[in-house]
Amino acid sequence: MRGCVAIFGVTVALAGCGGGTPAPVPAPAPATTTPAESAANTANDATRAWLARALTCGDRAFLTISQAEQRERLRQADGVTCTPESDNTALRCAVVPALRIGNADIGWFVLGAAHSGVAPVILPAPPDALRNAMPAGAGELASGTDLGDTRVECALTEGALAPGAIAGVVTHPGDPEASVRVCAFELNDGVATCTRTARGERAYRIEGLSRGDYVVLAIPGEAPDARIGYTDCVAHDGGDDDTKDRGDLPCTHELRIVAVPAGKTVDAIDPADLRTLEAAASWPQPPPTE
C-alpha cells in the first residue's frame, strides 16, 4: 500500500494502482441565450429583412423621406454605417456582415435622392443576381457602372416608369421610295431600340423606351453605309456649309441628347445631318438587322 501511495503521488491522472480508467471530463455547459438577447436577435433579423426589401423597391415610404430621415432610420440596423456624399445628393452605406439580396451578398449600397417619381439605388451586384428579389412592377434594373454594379430604379408613383416614345421625320434627299431605319441609343447603357419605316415613308416613331437620355440617328435603306443624325447641324438653302440652326457658328456634328420622360412622347426629333460612315465614326453603331 505504501508503494501504491508513492505512485499515486507522482501520477495524479491515475485513478489508483488497480489500472482503472481516468474519470471522464465533463462537457462544457451549452451557452444560454437570455430572453432579452433572443428578442434583440429577432429584431435585428427583421430589420435586415426590411432593408433587403427597401433596397429592391419594397418600401416606397422609406424611399420618399429625406436623406436625414433615411440615415436616422438606418442607424437602427446593426452593422449599417452611412455617410452622405459631399454634395448631399446620395447616401453611401456599408453593411457588415453582408446582406443577402437575391443571389448576391451586398456589402454596401448607395441611396440616391428621389426625382420625378423615381428613387435610384446602387447595389454591387449584376442585374441577374437581383432580379428575383424585385417585386413585380416595383422598379427596373439597369447596369450601373462598368464595375458590374446595378442601378435599381424604384417607382414611387404609378406610371413613374411607364415607357415613352420618340417621333419625328427623317430628312433625306436619296431614293424617295426607300425605307429608313431609325435607332435611339440609351446613353446609360448604350442599348439601341430601332424601327424601320415603310417604303417611301420618312415619318417614324420609336416606342417602348425607358425614361432616360437618348441620341437618335437613321440609316437610309438604299445607302446602308451612310448615317443621318439628329445633331446641332442643319443645311442652309440646301447647301452643305455646316452651320448651326442658330446663327452662323460652325456646328460640331455632335448628336443631340433627347430626354424621354416616363409615359410621354418626344416629338419633332428630325434627323437631317447626312454623314458618311467614316465621318460618323464617333456616333454609336446600330445593331445588325435580322
TrEMBL record:
Keyword Signal: yes
Superkingdom of source: Bacteria
Keyword Signal carried by entry: yes
Signal peptide: 1-15
Keywords: Signal
Protein's name according to its UniProt entry: Carboxypeptidase regulatory-like domain-containing protein
